[in-house]
Amino acid sequence: MKSSDYKQSADKAQKKLDTISPSFCLAKWNQVSLHLPTGLTNSCYHPPLHEIDVGTLPQNPAALHNTAQKISERKQMIEGKRPPGCSYCWNIEDTGEMSDRHYRSGEPWAMQYFASIIQDPLNVQHKPSYVEVNFNHACNLKCSYCSPQFSTTWGKEIDIYGEYPTSPAHNAPEHFMGRRKPIPNREANPYVEAFWRWWPELYKNLKHFRMTGGEPMMDHNTYRVFDYIIENPKPDLHLNVTSNMCPPTDKLKNQYFDAVKRMCLDESIEHFMQFVSVDAHGPRAEYIRYGMNYDRLMDNVDEFLTRIPGRNSVSFIITYNNLSITSLDGLLKNIRQLRQKHSSTYQRIWFDIPLLRQPKWQQINLLPESYQSIHKSNIEWMQKNSGEDQTNYSLFKDFEIQKMQRNLAYWQKNYTNDKEQKKNFYAFFSEHDRRRNTSFERTFPEMHEFWKECKSL
Fold first, then answer.
1. 399/411 Cα distance (integer angstroms)
2. What's the DSSP call for residue 7?
3. pLDDT of 127-166, one tens digit each?
4. Is the separation of the CB atoms in 124 and 198 below 8 Å?
5. Radius of gyration over alpha carbons of the chain, in Å?
6. How confident is the model at residue 2, as a pLDDT?
7. Which of 117, 96, 94 minimizes the C-alpha distance to 16?
8. What confidence score (pLDDT) does residue 3 get?
């Protein structure tokens, strides 16, 4: 899709949504994120997670998506009210920019169901067309903004050292009890069981199916999905997987690459999108996502694109946080280099740059306003290497630049000198260095003054 088309789709979606209400969002119906190890869900990845009522699942596995809370929020949207959990988009819109509410609703998987949703908007059997699922929290990384809910490696660290000394305490063991405690993969999980009962019916309606984690390469359910698709081809399906692209063994990587290659070559799906999580460049990226090897990640991305030459793309997910700022230019240049090498007949390398929301001490708006000049220089570099030439896939598109601009607008509007969060910044990362034998000051020497300020508090 051309960037102008993408923007036009969002513009059209805004007008269509406004015919219902100024807060209407198709993602609340047609998109779902399922976190099955904890029995939690949200509509897209922006709202806070909430509980799935396990008691409703034996009779209605579709209640994995159609929870009482979502039904209530759908009703609010029809009435023109703003559900508080959707504040990510409301904050963006209050700056005058279009939010993901418009962009996501404007995509075909959402907009094509507009009429049917309006006819029966509170249907508890509604089948989404865009599904994200986390089957398992097994992961070999300890990303700074993650938790034991999504990483077994994080869980092991907390078991040894306990909570982080922030205020309030971060990743405290008692926080991950009860419903927040992930069900180990070796134990029976009623949410996973309900999913597989729902799957044959859900599969018929799917346009996008995305597996996250944990690390999906480490989860047997990933390969169960692959096998099902190989046996039951769905030529209109966009299959997506989010990975750290640094699996613990080459055996897992090869098993995964081979399965994806077969689905693409056999045309079992419309398209395979490999999402890759990385938030900065080089050692700074490795610091944020502890356990990652940046060069190995980029080599694996290059191998993926080389071994599986068609019917697939890679999209880098840059969770933009205050440790991303000073080296984002290097990551953007690597993205452009991959485009120059692998994008000859269509765009195979994409990226998105959503803002990190939690923990608050890692948000970009905590940084001094002087750091905004770094962000602006990256926008200017992208603009110099932009254009709508449909034969040059290395160029940055208008909507990619616009996402950078909206992040800047949010930063400018919401800049804060929150001393409590600066104290938390120092408390967290100094403890991070102690536990993981890392060094913030050696990794981010350009942030020395900010570090010193946080330390002094």
1. 18
2. H
3. 999 999 999 999 999 999 999 989 999 999 999 999 999 9
4. no
5. 21
6. 55
7. 117
8. 56
Q: Which two tokens stand for residue 253?
A: 């990587």
**Side chain identity at residue 88, one-letter code:** Y
Q: With a threshold of 0.70, does the pTM exceed it?
A: yes
In the chain, which segments carry CATH 3.20.20?
134-456
Q: Over 164-189, what HEC string results?
A: ECCCCCECCHHHHCHHHCCCCCCCCC
Amino acid at 280: A
Residue 252 bridge partners (DSSP): none
Backbone angles phi, psi at 378, to 5 degrees: -70, -40
Mean pLDDT, the chain, rounded, equals: 95
Determine the average pLDDT of the residues in 100-113: 92
Query: φ, ψ for residue 242 (rounded to 5)?
Result: -100, 125
Helix 419-436 crosses helix 448-456 at what angle (to 10 degrees)? Answer: 110
* pLDDT digit string, tens, across residues 170-199: 999 998 887 778 888 788 999 999 999 999
The residues, ordered by sequence, that sit 6+ positions from 14 with a Cβ below 8 Å of its Cβ are 98, 102, 106
End-to-end C-alpha distance for the chain, whole angstroms = 49
Dump the DSSP string for 266-293.
TT-EEEEEEEEE--SSHHHHHHHEET--
Residue 33: the pLDDT is 94
Burial class (CB in 10 A: 0-12, 13-18, 19+), 367: buried
The C-alpha angle 214, 277, 192, rounded to 5 degrees, equals 25
**211 token code pair:** 């597996």
Cβ atoms 29, 122 nearer than 8 A: no
Q: Does domain 134-456 have CATH number 3.40.50?
A: no
Mean predicted confidence (pLDDT) in 258-262: 98
What is the Cα–Cα distance from 380 to 387, expressed in whole angstroms?
13
Q: How far apart are CA 24 and CA 251, in angstroms?
A: 46
Both tokens assigned to 297: 């990640």
Q: Which two tokens stand for residue 146?
A: 């993650």
Sequence-distant (≥ 6) Cβ neighbours of residue 376 within 8 angstroms:
408
> What sign for the dihedral angle of Cα 231, 237, 242, 245?
positive
DSSP 60: -
pLDDT in tens, 111-124: 999 999 999 999 99
